[in-house]
Design goal:
With about 210 residues, the protein is of the alpha/beta class. The chain has one domain: 3-Layer(aba) Sandwich (Rossmann fold), CATH 3.40.50. It has helices at about 15-30, 50-65, 85-95, 115-120, 150-155, 170-180, 190-200, and strands spanning about 1-10, 30-35, 70, 100-105, 125-130, 160-165.
Length: about 210
């Protein structure tokens, strides 16, 4: 079995996350993609981070109709900071016969990863970025392509690169829009928008979601 591991704060989950997961599923021929909301991300502060179970609920309602997508609470069950190498190690023990692929965005290569060498030994790190024109006759499937940033260049050996369609959406922009009372329609699935609106999540007092 080929399993994609897609971790993140998902604060909140949006169409960019879903496009990355679906692109990886097709390109890497994944049987399952696990969405893993972080309990306490090591590279982000707690300010503005929705409670873990709330973020997990948003993920669950978003992916419930996709037969290959599964929400996992493995990091929410573990106290303290959520380190990816510990999560992947635990999943490797649970799924000893599975080939694991860690799905990350290219921006995540600019941070310091705990146990980076160990992590690459446990799984294949698949890095998603926007698609570039392919050479004539080249496969459109996942392939190694030259990295753009210095940080990516340092870590490039052993990584797999995935071409991504342009979809410039970020959780931070969605939170900012909510705080300002602006619309988030077409940035998140309708069910997520309704849930956030009904519970006034991420909003400042007196503001409404457009």
């Amino acid at each position: 079995m080929r399993v994609g591991l897609f971790g993140g704060s998902f604060n909140p989950i949006h169409y960019g996350h879903l496009r990355l997961a679906e692109t990886a599923r097709e390109s890497l021929r994944l049987d399952r993609v696990l969405f893993i909301p972080a309990g306490q991300p090591p590279h982000k502060g707690a300010a503005g981070l929705l409670e873990g179970r709330e973020r997990l609920k948003l993920v669950e309602m978003t992916i419930r109709d996709h037969p290959a997508f599964i929400a996992s609470d493995i990091e929410l069950e573990r106290p303290g900071v959520s380190y990816t190498v510990e999560t992947v190690g635990a999943l490797k023990r649970r799924l000893p016969d599975a080939k694991l692929f860690l799905l990350v965005g290219e921006d995540m290569l600019t941070i310091a990863w705990r146990g980076w060498k160990e992590l690459k030994a446990l799984c294949t790190v698949a890095v998603a970025r926007r698609a570039r024109p392919a050479a004539r006759g080249a496969s459109s499937a996942a392939r190694i392509v030259p990295p753009r940033s210095a940080a990516a260049a340092r870590r490039q050996p052993g990584l797999m690169w995935l071409d991504m369609p342009p979809l410039d959406i970020s959780s931070s922009d969605i939170r900012r829009r909510l705080a300002q009372g602006r619309s988030i329609r077409y940035l998140v699935p309708p069910a997520v928008e309704r849930y956030i609106r009904d519970r006034r999540l991420y909003q400042k007092a007196g503001r409404a979601v457009g």
